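Thread: magnesium ion complex, take 2
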Amino acid sequence: MTAPAKLPLGSSLSEFALIESYFKQGALAMAQTARVATNELTTIALGIGDDCALLQTNGSEILAISTDMLLEGRHFLPGANAQWLGHKALAVNLSDLAAMGAKPLAFTLALALPASDTVWLNNFSTGLFQLATQFNCHLIGGDTTSGPLTMSITIIGSVGNHQALRRAGAKLGDDIWVSGCVGDARLALGALRKEWSISDLALAEVLPRMHLPTPRIDLGLGLRSLASAAIDISDGLLGDLRHLLRASHLGAVLELAALPISATLANQPEIIRWQCAAAGGDDYELCFTAAAEKRDQITVLSQTLSLPLTRIGYTTISTEAKIELIDSQGQALDANKTANLLRSFDHFD
Ligand code: ADP
Ligand code: MG
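Output below.
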């Protein structure tokens, strides 16, 4: 496929512009002109642009499929603990199933290894299968090659007809919720990268949030009948919420001080606190929208799962997915001072 006419060859694009221009447009063009990727058994119900693609089978279930990869030096530091990597490689993929309200079924694993190091492989596979067993998600294939340390998992889950949680679907005036607490993974990363210094005790408290994220599968299943839209927080709460808002053609008002943070993050200076909570990636919590009438049921779900669910704002009219940040008195925060919070992680920035 050639580059779209409007883009000068050799120009540099953001991660999401790149996907949109070269892959989403190509896939849409192919669906219009080529033999449609459909047979009497399976249809593409949802293509590029959500946490998972959805394949409609002729049964009562839809298949949810997603791919996420981890690269040494990009997603994890050289020398990272192999058992934690095994966990994280699968956890980030399970998180995309959670965001769609899908139940895990199976996954494939593509692995590039600099050397066939049996100690590393033993530890990696231990972390991988511990989490796979916890979620009854089966390894069904993959590929292995020598090369710079990289792991890529494609995961498959299932969700009932019309039950998938999409990014599109939020309604005007819906509440915006977030699970667990946000920002600890970014606090740990910043400390390891020496962007800021935190105590050894604080680092010990937040490191597991960075290395061993918990995919919110049970929450996704519980939200099937409650949420109007959902996304998982991989690149930063505000940036990921923006993807949801863009897909739903809405904006949002968010109370910054309402963002749920751990006691460890609450002890950090204000600037670090909000940067980590609002813009820090790697939390793998779910951000979702729901009608105000669902509040009581969502509170019950939170109690059942022993997982805090916090209402952080509501959706508004906006054609540009605008997010307005307010203080606890409802006053708008200075947009210049909060502009950096609205930028989420982009691999090509
Ligand atoms: P997530 O963070 O939920 O894994 P991403 O932000 O990585 O999602 O990707 C956004 C969307 O773009 C997803 O629907 C994903 O499947 C799609 N996507 C990303 N890279 C590619 C690619 N190289 N080809 C086709 N689709 C892609
Ligand atoms: Mg996602």
